[in-house]
Design brief:
Strand order of the largest sheet: 3-2-1-4-16
CATH superfamily of the largest domain: FAD/NAD(P)-binding domain
Number of domains: 3
Bound molecules: flavin-adenine dinucleotide, iron/sulfur cluster
CATH topology of the largest domain: FAD/NAD(P)-binding domain
Helix content: 25-40%
Structural class: alpha/beta
CATH architecture of the largest domain: 3-Layer(bba) Sandwich
Oligomer: single chain
CATH class of the largest domain: Alpha Beta
Strand content: 15-25%
Number of helices: 21
Number of strands: 16
Length: 489
């Protein structure tokens, strides 16, 4: 890796580019701002993206900030090891398609990652500007999105080179980012890859969870088409463990499996009244709107619309749900979260956008009981105030109850977004498979191989709810691990 990075950096065009602008001048350029749709306007649309993307001029200007470091620490922060300076320098010299090709060397979903990855905690947190200059990092995520969008919008989508077919069939279970990344790497190595998906759409959480206003489905579809062009087969409406068992698939010639069935099982708090009508999981709420078009009047999918909507939780799912509620017409769309804003696991950008859109944050608060009208529809919730004590095992300060602090607020819809558990079907089909007490599949973290030699796993079914890029990193490691296993080394 180091040798490859060095060779690339010594290309004549990179040396020339470095000589064009002094580092001191690069360091004085201010970080670009992402153009956004106005908050008052955007809350009227479920399907219009908030971030509008950089234009060519501002992308090139931002790319000039990157110093093409000899030791590019930004790459250490990227779970799929994108050659970040190479793609950014391609933008600086105006070779936008080359920039997109560089992204695709290691990432199957650059337009997705450029939109939803927490760059502020990953590559940008490890950028020279952040670490040494104590300035705003290079906007690596914005530039990634720019290059991927440019490629798509200019109709010049390229497909990476593929090795000759080796005749070996492998299967991926689930079609979220872990599987897509796995499939991209395995097809490049010459395998016959089939992705089996329980739902009628490919993409996992990218399709059913993350809303259009953050990640349009058409963007995901173009990335999927690239995989299809490379030869990946997709089987929709196919539940492994029901439509066919692992033994059936083995009989069909599949020699190894990558299980990436995600963590889509909703969790509830088990507080009194949680079964009243009007209280539902974020998973159901978002799936109705994102996958089944409930916000679009021309579809007949029902979805609960409320005037006073409370969303319980502080992660990305909670933020997506509350912003969806606002777009569905809620007058009061509220986050109820038991810790403070600083502890919220959601992306900083999402919290910021939610605030701009008029979302109300009731922090340091927890629901303890729900009350219903005579028809059994929730009408109010009792909230208990919390305060923060010492940090717990997660490193975040532990919320503790303030006795006697309860009060009631009116609600007509409540969306519970307090986390998810692993989908249990695959582990229950394979009793010999080693799983943790939380239901996640146990794997060797280097190879992603499970206790069953022919079965590899990654993404949320292993991590129990993480991020797109970590799932993709798992998919890449599993592809490498499975390749070695199948080649007998
Ligand atoms: P998933 O994306 O969950 O896909 C698993 C797929 O497997 C599903 O489509 C499921 O139907 C299918 N499946 C399950 N069982 C079977 C079976 N037996 N047979 C066939 N198919 C099966 N992460 C970020 O990095 N940034 C964000 O902004 C962000 N926002 C999020 C917003 C929401 C609302 C949610 C829910 C998550 C968000 N995440 C975000 C987390 C991220 O989406 C997940 O970590 C990631 O999608 C996990 O990928 P995966 O491939 O493991 O599984
Ligand atoms: Fe560019 Fe920052 Fe990476 Fe250095 S660390 S190569 S400045 S993005």
């Amino acid at each position: 890796m180091q040798e490859y990075l060095k060779q690339e950096r010594e290309q004549a065009w990179r040396i020339e580019l470095r000589g064009k602008i002094k580092n001191i001048e690069r360091g004085e350029i201010t970080r670009v701002k992402m153009p956004e749709m106005d908050a008052t306007k955007r809350v009227c649309f479920q399907d219009k993206e908030v971030n509008l993307g950089l234009d060519n001029t501002s992308a090139v200007r931002e790319a000039q900030r990157c110093m093409d470091c000899a030791n590019p620490t930004c790459i250490d922060g990227c779970p799929v090891s994108i050659n970040i300076p190479k793609f950014i320098k391609n933008i600086e010299r105006g070779e936008f398609i080359e920039a997109a090709k560089t992204l695709k060397e290691t990432s199957a979903l650059p337009a997705v990652c450029g939109r939803v990855c927490p760059q502020e905690k990953q590559c940008e947190a490890s950028c020279f500007y952040t670490l040494k200059l104590k300035k705003d990092p290079v906007a690596i995520g914005y530039l990634e999105r720019f290059a991927a969008d440019y490629e798509r919008e200019s109709g010049q989508v390229t497909v990476p080179p593929i090795a000759p077919k080796n005749g070996i069939k492998v299967a991926a279970i689930g079609s979220g980012p872990a599987s897509l990344s796995f499939a991209g790497d395995m097809i490049k190595l010459g395998y016959d890859v089939t992705v089996f998906e329980a739902l009628h759409e490919i993409g996992g959480v990218l399709k059913y969870g993350i809303p259009e206003f953050r990640l349009p489905n058409r963007v995901v579809d173009v990335e999927l088409q690239s995989l299809e062009k490379m030869g990946v087969q997709f089987e929709r409406n196919f539940i492994v463990g029901r439509t066919a068992t692992f033994d059936d698939l083995k009989d069909e010639g599949y020699q190894a499996f990558f299980v990436a069935s995600g963590a889509g099982l909703p969790r509830f708090m088990n507080v009194p009244g949680e079964n009243y009508n009007g209280i539902l999981s974020s998973n159901e709420y978002l799936t109705r709107v994102n996958l089944m078009n409930a916000a679009d009047g021309s579809f007949d999918t029902p979805v609960l619309k409320g005037q006073n909507v409370a969303v319980i939780g502080g992660g990305n799912t909670a933020m997506d749900s509350v912003r969806t509620a606002k777009r569905l017409g809620a007058e009061r769309a509220m986050i109820v979260y038991r810790r403070s804003r600083e502890e919220m696991p959601a992306r900083v950008e999402e919290i910021h956008h939610a605030e701009e859109e008029g979302i109300e944050f009731i922090n340091l608060a927890n629901p303890v009981e729900y009350f219903a009208d005579e028809k059994g529809r929730v009408k109010s919730m009792r909230i208990q105030r919390m305060e923060l004590a010492e940090p717990d095992a997660s490193g975040r300060r532990r919320p503790v109850v303030i006795e006697g602090s309860e009060y009631d607020i009116p609600v007509d819809v409540v969306v519970v977004a307090i986390g998810v558990s692993p989908n249990p079907l695959v582990p229950s089909e394979l009793p010999e498979l080693k799983v943790s007490r939380w239901g996640t599949i146990e794997v060797d973290p280097e190879t992603m191989q499970s206790s069953l030699p022919e079965l590899f796993a990654g993404g949320d079914i292993v991590r129990g709810g993480a991020t797109v890029i970590l799932a993709m990193g798992d998919g890449r490691r599993a592809a490498s691990g499975m390749h070695k296993y199948l080649m007998g080394n």
